């Protein structure tokens, strides 16, 4: 990648980081600042977007309080690159993990891998809990399938946290704002003021619009057919883009 390309990618990632900072600081009393910085070397470095301690440059969580006391740590990290057409910033992988404050073990985590095309699904949820029936079924499954299918296990004994729960695929996975909205509603997390729901709803709407645009780029013929059914006149350009079945809607 040329230096100008990397500079432009860094600029767009910085805008994304600023959006996250603005949104979270409009909702939470003491949200950290999200920044974009280059990670890795070689032919394909990545632009990482995360909250950093300004002194140590180490990743830090957003600390959510309940009745003024710190109770929940929200860790969010994104690694970004260009989309397939080199037009838009895309998330190559992301991890959003919810911890009890100062606990190393998450309560649950949302993860996304853009390159993942089969199983486990690219967008998935891990729940860190225990249920005897779940572990028993996983043991049975492990005995009756190739060993490589169990390579993702974090221990010799299956744990519920090893399960990958699909959550909407590459295009329709939940965003950070949806997860934060749920934490506020379910746990009574402290917010800046009563406008927090409007802020998050607007951010969620903008996320879904961006994802809808990306889905239309994946399947332009399907989008055109639907618009025609609604009475729109759709002109097919001479060099119409082809559907990209590897980029979104047909992937787990």
Topology record:
Elements: H1 3-25, E1 34-39, E2 46-51, E3 62-66, E4 69-82, E5 89-100, E6 106-113, E7 123-127, H2 132-143, E8 165-166, H3 169-172, H4 176-187, H5 196-218, H6 220-229
Antiparallel strand pairs: 1-2, 2-4, 3-4, 4-5, 5-6, 6-7, 7-8
Helix pairs in contact: 4-5, 5-6
Mean pLDDT: 85
What is the tally of beta strands?
A: 8
Give, in order, the helices and strands.
Answer: HEEEEEEEHEHHHH
* Main sheet record: 8 strands, antiparallel
Main structural class? alpha+beta
Q: Which runs of at least 5 residues are low in confidence (pLDDT < 50)?
A: none
Protein described:
- The protein is an alpha+beta fold and 252 residues long.
- The protein has one domain.
- The chain is built from six helices and eight strands, in the order αβββββββαβαααα.
- The mean pLDDT is 85.
- Helix 4 runs antiparallel to helix 5 and helix 5 crosses helix 6.
- The longest helix is centred in the first third of the chain and has 23 residues.
What is the structure about, briefly put?
The protein has 252 residues and is of the alpha+beta class. The chain is built from six helices and eight strands. The longest helix is centred in the first third of the chain and has 23 residues, at 3-25.
Kindly list the characteristics that best describe this protein:
single chain, 252 residues, alpha+beta, eight-stranded antiparallel sheet, 8 strands
């Amino acid at each position: 990648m040329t230096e100008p390309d990397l500079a432009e990618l860094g600029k767009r990632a910085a805008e994304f980081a600023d959006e996250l900072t603005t949104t979270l600081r409009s909702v939470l009393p003491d949200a950290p600042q999200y920044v974009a910085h280059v990670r890795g070397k070689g032919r394909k470095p990545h632009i990482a977007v995360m909250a950093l301690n300004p002194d140590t440059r180490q990743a830090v969580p957003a600390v959510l309080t309940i009745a003024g006391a710190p109770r929940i740590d929200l860790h969010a990290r994104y690694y970004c690159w260009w989309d397939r057409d080199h037009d838009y910033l895309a998330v190559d992988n992301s991890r959003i993990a919810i911890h009890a404050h100062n606990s190393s073990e998450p309560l649950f985590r949302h993860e996304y891998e853009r390159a993942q095309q089969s199983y486990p699904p690219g967008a998935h949820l891990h729940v860190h809990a225990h249920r005897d029936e779940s572990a028993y079924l996983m043991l049975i499954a492990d005995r009756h399938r190739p060993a490589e299918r169990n390579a993702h296990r974090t221990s010799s004994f299956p744990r519920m946290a090893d399960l990958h729960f699909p959550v909407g695929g590459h295009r329709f996975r939940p965003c950070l704002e949806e997860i934060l909205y749920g934490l506020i509603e379910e746990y009574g997390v402290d917010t800046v003021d009563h406008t927090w729901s409007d802020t998050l709803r607007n951010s969620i709407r903008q996320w879904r619009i961006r994802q809808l645009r990306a889905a239309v780029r994946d399947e332009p013929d399907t989008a055109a057919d639907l618009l025609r059914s609604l009475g729109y006149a759709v002109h097919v350009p001479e060099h119409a883009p082809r559907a990209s079945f590897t980029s979104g809607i047909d992937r787990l």
